[in-house]
Specification:
Length: about 150
């Protein structure tokens, strides 16, 4: 789901200009003249909207490509820290969630009122997505390297 200028402005570029100008107090003759100009230039306004959408798509593609290059350079680094920071953070995150559930169960023998810290459902989903993505990526890397 990409960013859409229409969602920000509440419609297309033409309707945004029309709404802005419509908020001013114009006499009916000027308002009719403006409406005629908007109708006359509708094709140009639609073309500008398409140009904006194209530029937005290009910027999203550039951002994704630069993020991929950063990840590739981190993975190919000679230092152990850039190569391992993502897996270590994922491991730490998983351990914190696991200990949040396990420690209160074990500690109830000594502290009867202890409860796990309430965590929203999205945290568990995010962790599952992270682990699934990491395991899938590592499996794919191992399969690719095995064939060489």
């Amino acid at each position: 789901m990409a960013f859409n200028l229409g969602s920000l402005l509440g419609g297309t570029l033409g309707s945004a200009v029309k709404d802005i100008v419509g908020s001013f107090k114009l006499d009916p003759a000027k308002k009719a003249e403006f409406q005629a100009a908007v109708d006359e230039n509708k094709a140009l306004i639609d073309q500008k909207q398409l140009d904006l959408d194209g530029k937005l798509q290009d910027s999203i593609t550039t951002e994704i490509q630069s993020a991929a290059e950063i990840i590739k350079s981190e993975a190919g680094s000679q230092s152990w820290l850039p190569r391992n920071v993502r897996p270590l953070l994922l491991l730490l995150w998983g351990c914190l969630i696991t200990f949040n559930q396990i420690v209160p169960i074990i500690a109830r023998f000594w502290i009867h009122d202890i409860q796990p810290i309430p965590v929203d459902a999205w945290v568990y989903k995010l962790t599952a997505i992270g682990f699934t993505g990491y395991v899938t990526a590592r499996t794919w890397e191992k399969i690719k390297d095995k064939d060489q």
